[in-house]
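Entry for the shared binder. Reason: the reviewer on the internal report wants the predicted structure included alongside the sequence.
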Amino acid sequence: MSSTARILPVVLSISCVLGLFSSSMAAPPDIRYLNPAGGQVGQKVDVTIDKNLGTLPVSVWTSAPGLKVMIPKKPAKGKEKQITIQIDAAAKPGLYWLRFHNAEGASGIRPFLVGTLPEQSETEPNNDLAHAQKCPQPAVTINGVLSKSGDVDTYSVVLKKGQTLVVSQTANEQLGSPMDGVLQILNHRGTVLSLIDDTLWFDPRIVFTAPEEGTYYIRTFAFPADPNSTIRFAGSGSYIYRLTFSTGPFVDHSLPLAYHKSASKPVRLEGWNLPDHLKSHQPNKDETNSTALISNPQLANWLKIPMSTTPTLLESNESQQEKGQPLSIPTSITGKISKPEEIDVYHFTAKKGEKLTFKVDSHTMGYPLDAHLKLFDAKGKLLKEVDDPVRNHFDARFDYSIPADGEYRLQVTDRYQHGGFRHVYLLSIHPTEANFELQTPEEQYTLTTGGKPLEIEVTINRLSPRFNDDIEISLAGLPKGATCKPVVSKVKEKTGKSVKLKLEAKHDVVFQGPIEIKGISLKDKTKVRIASAVIKGISPKRNTARPKPDLKLPYLWLTIKKK
């Protein structure tokens, strides 16, 4: 996508003149979370915001088309914090980002999920089996909140013998809820039959096959994502979750795990309760060509998979033979460690001096494999072995310079010899390429005209192998009357690691909108990177070691207002 297209506001909904504050108390929106944090395609959702909308009129920017946000002219008493979101019938399922803004500034960016299932809200009291909330069949998404310390939410469902129920919670990873959720399945006596903590990082998913017909109970509670000294169940208004119940089709992963634009065949789907006609699907590329969407009205969930730069392959039975499955470089191949102690073997030919990058993605995609990579020469000599390249990063990666012409073998396994249905991985072998990343310390900035220029610091991370080109860093999306000169980052100077963009505006300029900070290699103009920022307010502090990093997005925002 071009830089101009990326920064344009996609959906803009404007409230009317009356505000929650007088003009003497003008304030920007301050939105901590939305409840519910999602809705069904084609439906209208009443949403409560926390903390406040700020001074009206307020507008709302969204990251993709499909949502219309409506803010009442005159809110009814007791509903001053309620808005309505209309989800278009043609909206794509997935994660949307919303930013509220007015003349004074903007809120932090906040998530809103769009799904395909009917939706309900949690109804209290539902703390125990006697007051469990009934779930309709075959599938529903319930929006809930563990609103106070010690809170437990309980739901009931009637299952036939042999029927498989999938219960999947979305909270910490996509909604930023500061909770580490737990799911339990209980029988009518209150006996815990199954318990799951972390499935998709901190969010649990439980798959349960009923041993006999009857009523079963699903119980959820949480601990803080950042552990503290308390030992009881945690809760607060920010412990928002979405809980999907399905005895129908539910997809876990695709084979292959990535999609290439040249692919003519659909990907194969694996999950639970999938009928034959849903076991394959043709993914739809998004506007950025970076991901592809797998969605069907009959599926209880949707799946996004990355776009691959090379055609994607699937592991064959040859990977279980001593010599292994042959590969041509560059390549991307999807495999699975389907049972404990399994080792997948691949072999390829390379020439002396070739610099190759070997990478396995699994954990960062939400799967449990702790990848362990070994590279051997034709004689069986171990040349390189990698488990975690850096602390708390469970996906293996290394660069290697080929010492001689010949055949080489690569082994992929789980570090602890685990294996199973979800132990899938995406192995890629490519010529080593120097690269860089850009990051800003804030996701939004404010410039007051008539005062000092606004300086935006941009950090340049020159990835290994070190990226030595000069990089021109510029800012796009400014209105007429605002200027910002590009700055060049030179590797052997102070600007090699960071630069400062200086933004100025004429005294009569007023502006609210997305901006884009872009870095272009002056040596190779095809190398373009967009700056991202850590999103505050939905990325937990994570006081303890945690394998998944803070959320970074490229959606930067600028407010220009008069002094």
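Summary line for the report: Residues 34-115 form a domain with the Immunoglobulin-like fold (CATH 2.60.40.10).
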